[in-house]
Amino acid sequence: MHFKQDAMRKYGIIAILAIAIAIPFLTDSMFILNLLVLMLIFIIFASAWNLLAYSGQGSLGHAAFFGIGAYASTLIAVKSGITPFVTIFFGAAVAAFIGILIGLTCVRLKEWFLAMVTFGFAIIVQTLTVSVLAPVTGGWDGIASARLLSPSIPGYQIIEYFAVLAITIASIVAIWYIMKSRIGLAFLAIRENELEAQAAGIDPVRYRLLAFAISAYLAGVAGALQIHHIGYLTPELYGVDNSFWPVTYVILGGLGTLAGPVIGTIVLTIIWEGLKATGLTFGRYVIVGAMLILAIIFLPRGLVSLPEQVQEWVKRRKRKEPLPEPAGD
Amino acid sequence: MDNMGVFLQIIFWGLYAGCIYILLATGLNLIFGVMKTVNFAHGEFLMLGAYITATIFFLTGINPYLIILLSMLALIGIGAVVERFCFRPILGTGKLNEIFLSIGLIYIFQNGAAMIWTDEWQSVKSPYDGITIPVGSLFVPLDYILIMVFTAAILCGLYLFLNRTTIGMQMRATSQNRKGAMLVGINVERIDIISFGMGCSLAAAAGTLWIVSGQIFNPYMGSIPAIKAFAIIILGGLGSIPGAIIGGLLMGLAENGAAFLLGGIWKDAISFVILIIVLVVRPTGLFGEKGE
Amino acid sequence: MKYPVIFIAILLITAFFAGCTQQQATAAPGVIKIGVIASLTGPASNVGTNMWQSAQVAADKVNADGGVTLKDGSKAQLKLIVGDDESTQQGGQKAATKLITDDKVDILVGGYSSAVTSAYEQTIAEYKIPYIVTGASSPIITHRTDIDTSYIFHHCPTTDTYGQYTTMFIDQVVRPAVNKKLGASADRPFRLALLYQDTAFGKGIQTAVNDTIVKNNLKIILISQQSFRMGESDFRTQLTAIKATNPDAVYLGAFPNEGAPIITQARRDIGLNTIFLNAENNDNAQFYKDVGQYGEGAIIESRFSPYTAPAGAVADSQNMFKQSYFTRFGAYPDMMGASTYEGVFIAAKAIANAGTTDKATVRQALVDLKMPQIIEVMKDQTISFSPDFRESTFDLWMEQLSYNATLGETRPVIVWPDNLKTTDFTLPSWYMAGSSS
Asked: Would the CB atoms of B265 and A286 count as touching at under 8 Å?
């Protein structure tokens, strides 16, 4: 049984990769391609948020790191003329550094204190960007950013898509590696029981900071990619929207799993664009909100657990057992 | 106007703005005390309370100060539904889930309200609009005084309810020791629903008082006050009502000081700067004992 | 049933999606496709909805009048396709790309919020599609140098213009009136205070006021410049600081949801009984309702008002637009709606002049455009775009509010400039000038 599951997972991954590679050749719609690029970027962003949550820390202000990565990378690229493909990683390093600083204030905090601090941090960073730092950041007017590739290169959209796809895959592989390694185990141990983890010789402060740093780094990569894709940067990037979307994607896909953010982002993007096509406006958010709540209550491990859940329900029904109180354990 | 007059006036506005925060923070404290649950969407109940009052006012033209009771009753009902179908199923599955659930509630309530009432800014005119009464050296709008009176009355009512009625005492018992309360035969799930509903009705009162004082409103009005109310109860200590009142006043003063000295853009950010500094020094909040 | 199946299913759906959207792109003959970019969701959705509905009213009018005649003599009807920018940068970029590459629109109209619009200007530049921006008030839209903005035309006054007109009005009308009241000499400097939203919008106004004073060497001193955060509801601290400096008037760089509370709090709570000057976006029905009796005496710089129209030619066409909008949607349009309404006419006219929908030819037609004003008053009664930054030039007016006790609200009358005004500016009886020094 276990062996079979692994094999199927392997084929699944191969299938996705094949489709991801084939899509640009199946469609010549720039809208789809652009949508996919933005979706890939949000997969990185959601995965970054997910890694932090994996260590038991739920941030409500990840837009801060998304934005810091974007600003730092843009400023480096514009001032030095280095290609964005390189500056993305410097920009992300700045985000990681700030991530450690904010992590230092957060490591001793629990759940919703931490949520409040991160939420407030995004507001503080936005305020700094438009006040003290305005001479560098352009304030509310924003600044033009270097593009990943010049539009004069023929077929640059497709190249850009593959570049972003490569970075996305690299990020997911990196996260997979971290989750599998001793670091990931330490994250898990801290999340489950901090005292026991400490007794087992894991230093929670160090690992929590590490989680902050890695998560902020990847969020910074995502932010920088998005801005180099769009070409213009304003402080709206720090908005609450950008902090809440990754949470929504991850919860729906499956919190604390590698595939969760990927599936959540893909499914929600499709649903979102589909609802938009029907002409719904505010209704879209109501539906997404309802899906989020239903997922938390009835599918606490997200869409990735849907097949198992369905099997479970079917089995129980066959045995005529009453359904268990959902999610209560 | 002399400096003393200006100073008094600023204190007075701090009190008035503090009323909204105090009602919100007290509601949050009530819910947290009993259920140990946080609801980041608490501000949406303020918004719903405001809209329910405004709708009844537009339809009937009744004095909006009287509608406050209807609005509070309606929110007890809505709060009870939210508690029963959203928070109860996830009780005990971890604090993170409550935070994520709140995000879903924010999406639903804000945009649901926009679907029903549109997201245009609206306003309600108080029947006492334009009436001012002299208090010492200043002239104060009658509405502001009414708001303080209403807030004080609601808080006194709450105090009596918690100390004199059976349900109130059961709530306090549950808040002090949930298992113990169950052992002595208190139906804690019923207490949960009641306290959640009451917390929401305090938010509805805050929303009503806010719009009656001439504040204009739209479906997104609740988020910022609620977040600030959270900051206040973290500062003032979870479950401490005097802490919430002092915290609310201090926050009001800090905000106005920052707007004056650093520029208006810092008004929201300063709350969080203070919050972060306090939490770095004391991770459990200023007056908090054990955090949670 | 394990995850791979879901993965594959999802991706197949994506591919299916791709297939579907592509098929829509075939262009029917005799149809001109105009893409309207508007914020139908998010914080700016009330303005966005207004813009989209105004565009529909305009397209219906053009079509009812026979559509657009092309070079080959054929008549083409307008077809509007809306793109919702969700009031966000990602949303704007998705909407623009979809309209251009999937719906293959011939020309674009709309765009609100400079932050959102600047996020997809890159896409406009890349596909070289004419775009008439009718809702973003920052001059930066067509002044950017990092990309080619030559296809972008700006038909909406910018914060530069607001600030300039209002400052000139203060100098020519308010300053002499105050001097007369005080019995002061004509060279007494006018004490102006600024209270602005700390965003590109408010700062744009601040800059424009400062520049106009310096450039024209006006006798106006800025005694206080206070700012507030967007969406703020309590302005008493800033107003107290302003009051302490004894201003002769206060210019507000604010949105309607801020302007109304500012005036109410200043007059009711602070006792700052002075003239408040507002930017044009405050001229909507909701503002009059929210500000109530406290609006009396205040000034709004405007180009399109729900309750008044300038003396002269455009009054009839303004009323006709308001009427047809009201019949269809049961509400009144605002000024971003008015310029979007005109945007559709400008697009139709440019395509008619070009005789084709070829984008470069249409762009040239827009550059050369000289068409009579439609519902808003333009400089020289003509809509044309400046050669340097492709901006049209509006003639703005100033209106003063007076209280109408039966309505319980104030109503505007135009007091400046001379060719548009219906009455004169007056200082209210309760007006208190600043210190007379």
From this structure: no
